[in-house]
Write a structure and sequence with these properties.
One of its GO terms (molecular function) is DNA-binding transcription factor activity. It comes from Gordonia amarae. This is TetR family transcriptional regulator. The chain is an all-alpha fold. The chain folds into two domains: 12-65, Arc Repressor Mutant, subunit A (Orthogonal Bundle), CATH 1.10.10; 79-199, Tetracycline Repressor, domain 2 (Orthogonal Bundle). The protein has helices at 24-39, 46-53, 57-63, 67-90, 96-113, 119-124, 127-133, 136-146, 149-152, 160-176, 185-199. Helix 1 (24-39) packs across helix 4 (67-90) and helix 5 (96-113) crosses helix 11. The longest helix is centred in the middle third of the chain and has 24 residues, at 67-90. The two termini are 33 Å apart.
């Protein structure tokens, strides 16, 4: 789940996590992710990122114009990695309904608890950021995360775009508007099954059933 504020192709860093990436730009992005997780958005600065990346501030400015640019790319990378992992977990579901419930719950919990990507919630409080999350590029990226639904319900292939938009609107709402405090995961699952599943059209039986 990524925003499209940073234009261009998805920024996949060719680095498996062993040692430091050789590319200084990739090293800076990785350092920004670690800095966000350790210090939070308010205490993340170019100086701290440069120190964590073991490069000079001049090197940082060679690749990035502002702290905001680095943070946006770091969040995009962290969110994409988390999204891939959460989809893999949700794929263990036994039905399309269970898949979307587990994916939605996991995304909301991850964004709330993971300090490397929780700043995205603050970003999404801005109307412009919410609009970017629903623009064609962002929807196309998010659609890939929901494609496993078609493995359960191939009859819904023509509805995938609308289903993706509905899913994103639910995720944005759940992350930016506080619900009942102390709601357990099981309670959230019940809520999503009653509200999200029908909204995505998954309550309709496949043809022939």
């Amino acid at each position: 789940m990524v925003t499209s504020g940073t234009r261009g192709s998805r920024r996949r860093v060719a680095w498996g996590g062993q040692g430091q990436p050789e590319d200084p730009r990739s090293r800076i992005v990785e350092a920004a992710i670690r800095t966000l997780a350790t210090h939070g958005l308010e205490h993340t600065s170019l100086t701290v990122i440069a120190r964590e990346a073991q490069v000079s501030r001049q090197t940082v400015y060679k690749y990035f114009s502002t702290k905001e640019e680095i943070v946006e790319i770091a969040l995009e990378r962290a969110v994409t990695d988390a999204g891939d992992r959460l989809v893999a977990l949700a794929r263990t579901a036994g039905s399309a309904e269970e898949f979307v419930v587990e994916l939605c719950l996991s995304v909301v919990r991850e964004f709330t608890a993971n300090p490397a990507i929780s700043p995205m919630i603050t970003v999404l409080e801005q109307p412009a950021a919410r609009r970017r999350l629903l623009d064609p590029e962002a929807l196309a990226l998010a659609r890939g995360y929901l494609e496993p639904v078609l493995g359960y319900r191939p009859d819904l292939t023509g509805d995938l775009e609308e289903m993706t938009e509905t899913f994103l609107r639910f995720v944005i709402s759940l992350m930016t508007f506080e619900g009942p405090s102390g709601r357990s995961d099981d309670s959230m699952r019940d809520y999503l099954a009653k509200v999200l599943v029908p909204a995505m059209g998954l309550h309709r039986h496949p043809p022939g059933d």
